[in-house]
Fold Glycosyl transferase.
Amino acid sequence: MDIPYRKVVIAPHVVSIEETIRYIIQSHCSVSRLGDGEIKIANGKALAFQTQQPLLQQKMQEVLSVPISNHIVCLPDIFTDLSLYNIEARNHWKLHLAFYRKSWYKYINRKRIFHNAFISRCYMMFADKTQCAFYFKLIQQIWADKDILLIEGEKSRLGVGNDLFDNVKSIRRILAPNTNAFDHYDAIMKIVQKYSPNEYLILLALGPTATVMAYNLAQKGYQAIDIGHIDIEYEWYRMGASHKVPIPSKYVNEADAGVGVGDIHDEKYKKEIICRF
């Protein structure tokens, strides 16, 4: 059943996925992405994989409301039209907005132009998937020929078993826990700041912690991009999956919550790890 959807005239303007990716490539900006989980954090709620913490809540509100010049805020493109998405996604976001539209509008300046959080959600939720290959190729240009510092959950394993990062110059990994990563926020920041801002492009896949870390690193002159679920979406795209399914050897919180994900024997991946929490 398709739940009725009510539009509101004054809504945030969110640009397209393509425009967002091209802007990142051209401007070398940092990127924070926000979705349903992040607005819950801003409201002081906990998530299944992240306990409620006042400092995380405070930082999330700051990301939403205080712009900085070398950083963009990406919101879900849901506030005026859901026709691009499949029925499952449409109903999810309609229900979400019924509870949280006022919260979004409380924290953001709706006169700002926002970029698109679905740069890393560019496959599964879309009704028409003909542009997905183009989006993945385009987003890979962000890290082409770059030295990458990837901060991810301990079993996320971005790029392992696929060609997502085959075009990078090098990759080093910092592994954080899959749950409650914010507990290690200060320690991770300390490690990152051992490197100069121009030494690495920093990619983050660490839930709400990534959202606020990208913002704080931008304040310190780093380019840090919250790329979220891009690897899982890419895996689903390569499989031609029609619904969210587990990926062998990778933690997928939306499919079986990562249950049963064990160790892998990949020497290249293991050599890339410089720190593990």
